[in-house]
Design goal:
single chain; 179 residues; two-stranded antiparallel ribbon; 7 helices; two-stranded parallel ribbon; 6 strands; alpha+beta
């Protein structure tokens, strides 16, 4: 996915006549949480995410004629980690992933009003209940069957935010009332 994204980026820059930046506007607009990825230590090694990504991909890309800075490579990696959609198999395992820029505009809710449905290489946004005029369209980024504390931990790890959707706040309040 990283290589394909870099190829599309170069193609878009050429089409749009962009020469003064490394990323086309469509990639530039995506959230990366770059700063949080820089702080990550992977497994029990001393390497951080930046070192691992750049040391793994830079030689591979250079051997294939790509001229991309380590900073841009890491930035694209972060953008994909945060924004890519996963295609899941019959047992719920991730079998592939893709980047659908329109889908990245949708916020998360643990009580979403829409679902992503994949049809071949397309992704369709389907309402799962009636939606009021002016209501924000939302999807779930994670498995929403889990308890509130587990959902929040998953979102913090995957998407780098603390969920305060209506459902999380209701469940948090119910837990406080029990105590």
């Amino acid at each position: 996915l990283l290589l394909r994204t870099l190829e599309i980026n170069e193609s878009e820059k050429q089409k749009q006549g962009i020469v003064d930046t490394e990323l086309c506007p469509e990639l530039e607009m995506l959230e990366s949480h770059h700063d949080k990825f820089l702080q990550l230590k992977l497994s029990d090694t001393k390497n951080n995410a930046y070192d691992i990504v750049t040391k793994t991909y830079s030689p591979f890309l250079q051997d294939r004629g790509y001229t991309v800075t380590e900073r841009t490579l890491f930035d694209v990696h972060c953008k994909l980690a945060v924004n890519a959609n996963a295609f899941q198999g019959e047992q719920g395992e991730t079998v592939s992933s893709g980047l659908f820029p329109e889908q990245t505009l949708l916020n998360h809710s643990c009580r979403p009003n829409c679902l992503n449905c994949f049809r071949g290489l397309e992704v369709l946004l389907v309402a799962n209940r009636d939606i009021k005029r002016g209501e924000e369209l939302t999807i779930n980024y994670i498995d929403v069957i889990k308890p509130v504390w587990e959902r929040r931990a998953m979102l913090e790890e995957k998407s780098h935010f603390f969920c305060v959707c209506e459902r999380c706040l209701e469940e948090e309040s119910a837990e406080v009332d029990k105590a």
